[in-house]
Amino acid sequence: MAKLKVLLPQFGMGMQDGEIVRWLKSVGDTVADGEPLVEIEAAKTTVEVPSPAAGTLIEIVADEGDTVDVRAHIATIEV
Predict the structure, then answer these.
(1) Are 78 and 63 in contact (CB under 8 A)?
(2) Edge-to-edge strands, sheet with 45-50
(3) Of 9, 26, 27, whose CA–CA distance to 18 is shortest?
(4) Please, which residues bridge with residue 40 across strands?
(5) pTM, rounded to two decimals
(6) Most exposed: 28, 49, 52, 75, by fewest CB within 10 Å?
């Protein structure tokens, strides 16, 4: 099976980073394409980051409370 990196998307033109507020899935959970994985806060707005593909969440790289740059690797899904 292939491994797919989940990257922090850019939700607005000025967004440079975001804080991981809460993981909605845990390592080992099955996720559907488009299913919310994590809540992030950027510019005082909380947004859900959807799964880019269906599979199994095998790794969480960024912990709750971490501030990460746009396009940073935050998790890995086995597809």
Answers:
(1) no
(2) 45-50, 36-42, 17-23, 67-69
(3) 9
(4) 20, 47
(5) 0.92
(6) 28
As to burial, measured by CB atoms within 10 angstroms (0-12 exposed, 13-18 middle, 19+ buried), residue 49 is: buried
Enumerate the β-bridge partners of residue 3: 78
Look up residue 74 and give its two tokens.
Answer: 């935050």
User: Which domains, ranges and CATH numbers included, belong to the chain?
Assistant: 3-78 (2.40.50.100)
pLDDT tens for 52-79 read 999 999 999 999 999 999 999 999 999 9
CB atoms within 10 A of CB 30: 11
Tens digits of residue pLDDT in 4-22: 999 999 988 888 999 999 9
**What does the angle CA 15 – CA 4 – CA 10 come to, to the nearest 5 degrees?**
10
Phi, psi of 64 (to 5 degrees): -60, 135
